[in-house]
């Protein structure tokens, strides 16, 4: 533990050392005085300027749940809080100026178009469809999460089923008659019940599910298999402006006077996610171990805010938490000119002693990587490890490092794909798949902080 802590603060001189810490919390539901922690959310803080190395953390799942701790040197930071495989909309803080010796302790809360985390009651009967209405705050939906009391297959048993999420715009009649907006998201292998009390979620790229702020929409949950049923957590609520419309397994339908345990996130915060992780199953198939990789995509915003890439590192090398990759953006695709500033992403994840997997992440200040909406760019990742940082490492099995710098990114999980770009091995060799990652952009070039 002492070794890891010392390694984290090495970039800062003792007299310049600072700490940014706090908790990531959300209200249990609108108007509630109780708060729930946002756990297992990645945090990456980067100083402004070229070549700076990110500081990484992941919010705690144990007490104090939702806690984060980012030690570093004094300066001007941008910070991203995001779990691309989760329901929480990313938070990006800009212009976070910290002076030598500062200890900044703050509570942060994500923005939701709809957020209800009550788990004290549930539907006692199985249903095939749930429609939860909400009022849109942003211009498109990018994340929806939900928690079920049972998966409808075998509950606490080993089986599950796929659940579809779709968004519907309010029209005439009941929500089952409302027009669907954009494609449905698929949530793979939903397996819950008894002690398996998990959150499930899916996502979209910005613009795929367009919404108009102030208008009413409904999130529709149903099984992918026709006739499949399940049961949600929900709570009684007399405010029927937002309500749940339920279709029972026997076909009986109606408004319930309840609100479903669910979270909905949108482009309501000055950010865009042109390249999102849409299928939230993770760590499935490797792309291949290499020193460098890139992924092309089409920009929607004015400058880059953050990049998080799912990846693993070699079993005969130090853990992903002690490895770094240079991140740059090339205009027009691989081989193009670098756009703006390059930075160093740090890894964060799991380590068993001979295997390590997780993510590489980095944040950018507004204007550091200027981009133009509608143009193609390549996000490039290159390991900066070398003989000096790898040689002599011995893993828990006694295997000695092969001294070869590199990393193994994960592919997007089907049916997720990105039709406007593709992956490139060695940043030159075009592949037939996409990398599993999330790109967040600033909608405008406004440099004001959140």
What can you tell me about this protein's structure?
With 450 residues, this protein is an all-beta fold. The protein folds into two domains: 1-110 and 270-450, no CATH class; 114-266, Sandwich (Immunoglobulin-like), CATH 2.60.40.4070. It has helices spanning 2-9, 387-390, and strands at 17-27, 35-37, 42-47, 55-58, 67-73, 75-82, 91-98, 103-108, 114-116, 127-135, 141-146, 148-150, 161-169, 179-190, 200-203, 216-223, 231-232, 234-236, 244-248, 253-255, 258-260, 262-266, 271-275, 292-298, 303-313, 324-331, 343-351, 356-363, 376-383, 408-409, 423-425, 429-430, 437-442. Strands 23, 24, 25, 26, 27, 28, 29, 30, 31, 32 and 33 form an eleven-stranded antiparallel beta sheet that branches. The longest helix has 8 residues, at 2-9. The radius of gyration is 22 Å and the shape is globular.
Q: What percentage of residues falls in helices of 4 or more residues?
A: under 10%
* Biggest sheet record: 11 strands, antiparallel
Low-pLDDT segments: 1-12
N- to C-terminal distance: 33 Å
Q: If you average the pLDDT, what whole number results? A: 95
Tally of structural domains: 2
**What is the strand content?**
35-45%
**Shape, please?**
globular
| Radius of gyration over C-alpha positions, nearest whole angstrom | 22 Å
Task: Name the structural class.
Answer: mainly beta
Helix segment tally: 2
Number of E-type strands:
33
């Amino acid at each position: 533990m002492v070794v890891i802590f010392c390694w984290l603060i090495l970039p800062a001189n003792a007299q310049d050392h600072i700490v940014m810490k706090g908790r990531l919390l959300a209200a249990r539901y609108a108007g509630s005085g109780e708060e729930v922690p946002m756990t297992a959310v990645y945090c990456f803080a980067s100083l402004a300027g070229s070549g700076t190395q990110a500081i990484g953390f992941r919010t705690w799942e144990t007490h104090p749940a939702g806690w984060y701790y980012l030690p570093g040197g004094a300066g001007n930071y941008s910070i991203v809080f995001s779990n691309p495989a989760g329901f929480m909309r990313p938070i990006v803080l800009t212009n976070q100026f910290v002076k030598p010796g500062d200890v900044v302790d703050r509570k942060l809360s994500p923005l939701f178009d709809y957020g209800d985390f009550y788990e004290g009651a549930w539907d006692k009967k199985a249903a095939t469809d749930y429609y939860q209405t909400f009022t849109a705050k942003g211009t498109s939906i990018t994340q929806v999460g939900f928690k079920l009391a049972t998966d409808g297959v075998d509950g606490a048993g080993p089986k599950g089923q796929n659940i579809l999420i779709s968004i519907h715009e309010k029209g005439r009649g009941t929500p089952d008659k409302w027009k669907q907006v954009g494609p449905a998201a698929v949530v793979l292998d939903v397996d819950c019940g008894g002690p398996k009390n998990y959150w499930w979620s899916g996502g979209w790229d910005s613009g795929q599910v367009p919404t108009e702020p102030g208008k009413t929409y409904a999130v529709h949950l149903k099984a992918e298999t026709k006739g499949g049923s399940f049961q949600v957590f929900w709570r009684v609520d007399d405010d029927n402006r937002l309500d749940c419309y339920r279709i029972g397994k026997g076909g009986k339908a109606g408004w319930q006077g309840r609100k479903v345990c669910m979270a909905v996130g949108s482009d309501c915060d000055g950010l865009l996610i042109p390249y999102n992780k849409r299928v939230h199953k993770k760590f499935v198939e490797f792309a291949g171990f290499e020193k460098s990789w890139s992924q092309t995509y089409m920009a929607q915003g004015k400058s880059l805010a953050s990049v998080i890439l799912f990846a693993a590192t070699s079993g005969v090398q130090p853990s992903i938490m002690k490895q770094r990759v240079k991140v740059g953006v090339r205009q027009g695709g691989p081989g193009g000119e670098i756009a703006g500033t390059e930075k160093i992403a740090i890894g964060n994840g799991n380590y068993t002693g001979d295997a390590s997997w997780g993510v590489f992440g980095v944040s950018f200040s507004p204007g550091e990587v200027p981009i133009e909406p509608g143009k193609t760019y390549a996000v490039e990742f290159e390991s900066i490890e070398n003989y000096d940082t790898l040689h002599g490492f011995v893993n828990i099995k006694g295997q000695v490092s092969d001294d070869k710098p590199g990393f193994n990114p994960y592919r997007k999980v089907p049916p997720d794909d990105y039709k406007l770009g593709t992956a490139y091995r060695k940043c030159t060799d075009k592949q037939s798949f996409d990398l599993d990652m999330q790109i967040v952009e600033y909608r405008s070039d406004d440099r004001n902080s959140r």
